[in-house]
User: Fold Dynein intermediate chain 2, ciliary isoform X2 from Drosophila mauritiana.
Amino acid sequence: MATKPGKGDGKQVKGKRTSKNKTDGPGGGGGDADDFDAWMKSRQLLKPDDQLDLTEAELGEEITKVLTPTNTNIVRNLVVYSFKEGEFVLAPVPGNTVTLIAFAGNSLHVDSEEGRRQIEESDEIGYPLPMPNYTVVEQRETDNVDGEEGEGEEDDDGATAKDAAAEDEDVEEEDDEEAKGTEGDEGEGEGEGEGAAARQEDDEPAQQAAAVSSKKRKLINQFNYCERGALTYTNPKRNVDTQTIPPPRSQFGGNVLQWVIYDSYMENFAESQKDGTKKEDRKRGKREKKFRDKSAIAEQLNKKYLKCWQILERMINQNIYDDIAHDYRYWEDPADEFREGEGNLLPLWKFQYDKTKKMNVTDILFNPSYYDLFAVCFGSHDFMKQTNEGYLCLFTVKNPSFPDYIIQTDCGVMCCDIHPTYPFLAVIGLYDGNVAVYNLREDCKEPLYVSRGVNCKHGECVWQIKWGLDMADGEVNFFSVSSDGRVFNWILMQNKLWVTTIITLYRENGLVDGPDGTKVTLKSGGSCMVFHPVDNKVFLVGTECGYIYKCSTAFSSKYLMTYYAHNMSVYRIDFNRFNSNIFVSCGADWMVKVWEDMRPDPLFIFDLGAAVGDVKWAPYSSTVFAAVTTEGKVHVFDLNVNKYKAICIQAVVPKRKNKLTRLSFNEKLAFIVVGDEKGVTTSLKLSPNLRMMVKPPKKQLYLDQNTLQIGKLEKLLSLVRELPEGSNVVPDAATTVRS
Assistant:
């Protein structure tokens, strides 16, 4: 009977516990039956209620299950596009084997082909090859030797020699002796002794061969092995001698007198004085450099302070002129609803500079990128009272009290233009015939480019200047016209201005007899110019004789068209924003004329009763334009409302004391700026009747305002053009409404 197992004495076999006999008390003892029953109950299997009851035949039936190495996650019908064949082809199916981990082995079997090849190569060259750290595995079998009695006894220890890879021969001999001693101890009787001796004799040649083979297969040490052929040869030292030509020698002799010594001392003293002056100059240069550095730092600080003061000044001015700022944005004259075909102008700010009070406003231009910034040129139209200085001032409506940028020149500034792509580049034309280009982002005191020399300038006053499109090589260029009758093209090179004469304006039928009897062609002085908005090679030039020449940059000796426009000098020309074939001109003969391209006669003629200084088309309407006269009045026309007279005539300055010279429309908001002869620029806002928009018809609500403005102008022009016989004018359903 098994007793209750003690602590540490039990041994578990197949879920049961057994123990050695051990007394639990003084009277001995055995196992506890209750504990055994409880343990057996815990080992019983619980059978679920819904388990199937199978028969012995069903339980004994063998069910074959086939396991396949097919990977179900691999896509079998994957296709890729082949650019070589130009179609989709099936991609090769990857294998089903998934490698989880792989290590590169470094062991070779002694009987393998690679192992035998390395052994043979090492035998041929006489020393071991620098083989990789491979381990050669050798297998040997023990032989069974039969005794005299016919009973085969198995040799356990002595028959197997595991010392094949030993390095020393002494170790091998000791192992052999131990093997022999073991065989002698295990033998029993004479028969067994003789069998052991026979086995010993048979094993001796095998052990010798194993020892020889182990010597040949000895592997080299990979860490301190070095081949003789790879050792670096130490070159012996050698001496190199060179021989040069000895330097030339000369003999010198002289007498040393007292005055020679004196002169040498005086020369040495003069040199020391020069060195002192050089040191003083160096110190002075260092002081000047420090002063320049300090002045540069102070200038940078002043620029920062100036910018802060400009922002503060704008804030103060906006608070002071708060009512005018609201009118500038939101004023609408309610009286326009009760007067049909008439409008008025609301004066806003006045812009002026203290140093230009006695100068004339010679040109006004809005910046193409910043709608609230405009440039004003100051010079003189009275050639008998020319000033010694001129100004180009850039004002903004955010600060009417002082200009943001000021450029001062040595003579009057007669015209200017701002580059449409680079709004910081401003070019000006001067009264003396020179031109200059300024960069507004840098210091405005010095020009970026300026014309120099007699041949690189106009002979007389530059009346108008215009930027041109960039050339094929990317150079920026502009054009200018002057009273000398020449149109120049100026190209901004790397270090200078390159000038080319585009055309020289000669009068048609202008051949007259000269003083010496030769024929002389009279020139026609240019007074204004404007480029065609679509064809950039075509431009119009107004002259002092009253003619308008249509020219091209591709032809320098022929006019495309000549318009006998005015009886006196042509002051300004401007193309319509919606129809590039329509342009307007004004002159000193009190006339404003509307022209169509390639028609010798004007479409509309208006007499304003005074010399017209400037005329411009409105950017928001195809039939609205404005003009200023020397009487100090602004005339606004809308040809769609009234084809015979202006719908607004308003005096801006006193008639006897002042004259209006230039005007310009704002490109975004409905207001204009006009300049006078006293150096004052006034801003005026247009009433609703002066900026009417076109309402689309009910069946054409999809039409945009540009298309409607073009249709309105074409309808107007069809009424004044000479139509062929039998042609009818198609009525337009568009009507004009207030904006």
User: Anything to note?
Assistant: The helical segments are 33-42, 56-60, 113-125, 169-186, 189-216, 258-320, 322-330, 705-720. The two ends are 121 Å apart (CA to CA). The longest helix spans residues 258-320. Residues 1-30, 131-198, 723-739 have pLDDT under 50 and may be disordered.
